[in-house]
Prior knowledge:
By secondary structure, the first copy, chain A, is of the alpha+beta class. The first copy, chain A, has helices spanning 15-33, 39-49, 57-66, 73-85, 128-139, 157-163, and strands spanning 89-92, 97-100, 112-116, 122-125, 144-155.
Amino acid sequence: MPLIDPAEVFQPHDHASCAAQTLARAEEICDAAGARLTPVRRRTLEVLLETHKAMGAYEVLDRLAEDGFGHQPPVAYRALDFLVEHGLAHRIQRLNAFTACTQPGGHAHAPVFLICERCHAVAEAPGPGVRDALENAANAIGFAVERAHVEALGLCPACQKETAP
Amino acid sequence: MPLIDPAEVFQPHDHASCAAQTLARAEEICDAAGARLTPVRRRTLEVLLETHKAMGAYEVLDRLAEDGFGHQPPVAYRALDFLVEHGLAHRIQRLNAFTACTQPGGHAHAPVFLICERCHAVAEAPGPGVRDALENAANAIGFAVERAHVEALGLCPACQKETAP
DNA sequence: GATGACATGTTATAACATTACATTTAAGGT
DNA sequence: ACCTTAAATGTAATGTTATAACATGTCATC
Lengths: 165, 165
């Protein structure tokens, strides 16, 4: 039972509850892993959860600084790294930016990212099918995949409607 | 008939001929497209072709400067952008770096990249299977994919042997 | 030989990321 | 409670990657 359906990310939804539930789930995950969701880390996740767009580290940093945390880059990068390590956020390579995980603990930590070029929202689609295909392609030449980044650029359902007519 | 088999990239091979053939093919492609493979651009491609590792823009820039071209970042970025636009090179998002295309004109311009974490070589495997799986995952939520970056990290065949025993 | 499109050179700066070191905080053992 | 230690945070300095903006040069075409 995903917290939010991938398709809903691109549509208006009860975002307050979407964010609150994800945050609650994040706390459970940290608890279970014996990891500490400290104030900066928690606040960083809250900031990322405000939007489904990816956010740059410096934008996060500005927000943290406003809240009284340090205003040097490592403050943001450390918190973001923690979140990524624990599967609570993802780095979007294509954008050099970060986004809160919408499925923490979900689909085997191997999502594919769908990045809308018009509204800049980022959704996570289930990755297993794509991973399998990738494994096949790699195995065919003897390459052993450890992890993969799959990022698609295109138009989300809502923006397709806006653009076409 | 690919210029070089993906698997060979990770093994010793006649690299001089590999590079020369690719360069020749690049010239044909530019000709056919009415694009000009000017001295900087050609030299940039030659530099990338020296190795199957991805190369950062500033490393390329240094090489160009040595050869008497300008030594400001745009010199390298413009040449690299040209090569990428014409399918003669690829940007590897994960590494913020560039690599010469080993299959110019080949497998529908939709390769998946295999990045060896030990020797840092980058190979291109045929992407269609992966693209199809990605299309399926995206279509399921109404997302229209325009292009995608698929990058796998792991160990190439040669480095698996080196590491295991 | 003027025009216009493309390509290159150069300056400056923006945007993203890390190293290194000092200080504080929290957890566990005695 | 107190000490020890590991983890987390703060801060300064710097490194790396990328682009904007504008000037100059080159070349094909008319």
